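USER: For my understanding, would you kindly supply a protein sequence with its structure tokens?

ASSISTANT:
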Amino acid sequence: MRKRKSKQEAQKILMVILIYILSLSIFYFTFLYKPKFEITLEITGMVVNPPVAIEPPARFFVMFHNSDFARMQNLGAQGVRQPLGWSEVQPSPGTFIWTSVENFYNTYNSNGLKIIRNIKIKGDAADSNFWAINCSQPADVVTSCGNTFIYPASRNETSCPPKNMNDYRAFKSNLTDRIEGRINYLIIENEGTTPGFWYGTKEQYVELRKAAYEAAHSVNPNVVIIDNGIAGSAWAIVVARELYEAGNVTAAVKFINGYNRYSPNLTAAALPFYLYNPTSCYNYDVVKYIMKFPDFDVMSYHFYGDSDYHDDVVDWIKNEMQKDGYSKQIWATEGGVRDSSGGIDISREEMADEAIKQHAIAFGKGSGTWMYLPMIEGTAATLDLDFKGLYNTSLDITPAGIAYKIMTKKLGNFSTVEKRSLGATVSAYKFIANGNPVYIVWSDSPVTVDFSSEIPYSVNVTTLTGKSSINSSTNIKLNSSPVFIEKVNCAITSASIAQNCSGDCEAGEKISMQATFSGNCASLANFLQIDAISSDSQCRIQYSGGDMSGISSSAIFGSGTISGIWTIPTIPSKCEGKTFLATSATLWNGLPGTGLQVSSATATGSFTFMSVIQPN
């Protein structure tokens, strides 16, 4: 009996121990355990509201411009992104000085430029002892990789978190109220993944952004709060890490080396160190964290990678927002072309190609703007000359600057853009500018494409050097350098025919041709040709494939008018005695059938061929 009781007591004790161990395990894995790698899972079935349509103040912005308004206007730049430090307007508690804000607005607005202010706690010329901030070195951060990121001891002129968030809210409210209706687009800080710009934690940045969002919108509901602009260097880490953790090692290496085209030397063996060193892990954690909280109106990113990988970055941002349950517009608030003496040098011409591709891809993915950095190379002491400008250090325009100037002139404040499908190797973006289509098109490898489904007949093709030519839309030769493709600036608006015969017409008599046009047809075309068909549809007159060739003549241009005379050739017997109705008119550059079709339109009018009585 005692033995049985002891056995029961032992079982009870063992059960209590097992329950205790199980409870500890649940507590540990629920609250304490941090996996070495964060595995991202695709969330399906989530309802995500579409982003609110927000119109940008302009499309083409520049940075690091030295207030060189003449060169900005020469490029066709429409706006600037300019930093504004808290200390510049509130040097002491309760004291606001708006002189610099007003002077900046008046100067740039008078030069026809739109403005986006990059609001930073520390401006470029801020006092290092600014009263409102706490710049003590942040505590070391244990990353998702299990290692430790140590903030640099020296912070230079970076932004630090405010001592009191209510002070920051008051500043933001007063600023928004002061500039309402004049400057309604505000970026909150810059590259929060980089301690060189934000000397605080990711949690402190999210708190700051939320305070800015709430304070600004409480004063001006129409203000647009733009996120910090995730650093271009972060994307190689973030996108590649998730490829690697999904088992796509080759794809991860390819992405990093492709994105960092100026230094493509990473091997698969070195990939884990690249992705999981403390700095990379810190970058990854910051990006993932600050994107969880949608207290902003526009998500923004910076891009300096190879244009081939641009889509991947924007798609990652969109997917990440969807996972976090929201959707916002995405703007490129900084970007440009990088080169490096330590990597692969690319030519100035290739830089021009990249600059135009970046704009086309960003706009095609929905970006409202692109802010090119730098306008002038080496503008700031801290700006590495690896960042290539639209003007060089001697203030000479570069090939990228020439291409940029052509782009802004053709696209202006375009209204819409969409990506078009023209072949596996071809990238094509259709913009509507001033009501007209303008295409930016290139191919990864040399190819000839038929463009007639987009623009029939002839097109105007302009290279990045500004050379233009009229081409048949069925035979467009492409390579890796983008071209602009447009309708030719010529359109027939009406056309008609009339007989100049004494009665029914016979061979040797005349048919008169009349047309009206708009555009620059006189310099683009030299022949007018009109098709006609008999009323019984048994005989056709057209430039090729008909029963008769015609009706055509050299085009005589007047003020908005075209005229011509067709001398009737020998009439086929099947066409004799028939009345012909005009169907369509075409302007040609060159002879009908062998030259280039410039423009076509419906034609009207009629004539009748004489019946020939055959002798007995």
Summary: The CA atoms of residues 156 and 196 lie 7 Å apart. Residues 1-5, 16-50 have pLDDT under 50 and may be disordered.
